[in-house]
Amino acid sequence: MSRSFPPVSLIGAPTDIGAGHRGSSMGPEALRIAGIGDALSARGIEVVDRGDVIGPRNPWQPPVDGYRHLDEVVAWNRAVMEALGAEFRAGRMPILLGGDHCLAIGSLSAVARHCRESGRKLRVLWLDAHSDFNTHEVTPSGNIHGMPVACACGLGPDVLTGLGGHVPAMRPDQIRQIGIRSVDPPEKKLIQQHGLDVYDMRYIDEVGMKRTMEAALDGVDEDTHLHVSFDVDFLDPSIAPGVGTTVPGGPNYREAQLVMEMIADSGRMGSLDIMELNPALDSHNATAELAVDLVESLFGKSTLMRD
Ligand SMILES: [Mn+2]
User: Fold this and answer.
1) Could you report the per-residue pLDDT of 114-130, keeping only the tens digit for each?
2) Which pTM was predicted?
3) Does residue 163 lie in a domain region?
């Protein structure tokens, strides 16, 4: 069994500018140390590490008008968007090594633009404990890593919603959220208003991960660009302690592997974010190593005996 993948570019974005804990700025290096490049090369994939995009330091200030570090968040996301855009134009698959999840505003903007320009359908799989659908009116913290999905759907400050030049960057019906188990009450109301498709842990418990993924991938075809935004806090904290916002009751190791294997089986993944890994909270880089293990499955390394 073999699949062919386009050449891959690793792009680090070492910042915790949108987070409530310091440390995800060290995520890219932890993923490199855990061997993400070699793991993909070993699967026969051509991999280039582009190094890190650069941006402003984290000034660690309180929120202003419901946003923490808005100017810095814009600068980082513009850098991410431009770096990913260059890879798409070169026919390569970007893997964004975060960094906190606010950087998905830049990656989603780049992916949405790429799909508009290439005439491809977009499907985003958002693997996360959180919906990240807050706005400055309802955010409890002002941390912009809780807002990227809302921004992508046009809810947020113009400097972020308009980053890619098209507002909204995407429609809620292009997004499927999986593993959700922590949503603020006003955020829940917004999600319902905008009709976001959420497969929360209750749904997964009731129908199982296989049927959840079949539903989330339904309609994906050869014209679809699948973007996977993997927040490491998607995983149960018992197997992935190295994140700032752990929530109990997430997918276990085997369920997470099944998610990745079914995405691989679709053959349509065109870009990937690996976000919120926080080495300062990890134990001997185990969470980074688990993330690399799961990425190998996303690229077709199967634990199964069948062909
Ligand atoms: Mn997130």
Assistant:
1) 999 999 999 999 999 99
2) 0.97
3) yes
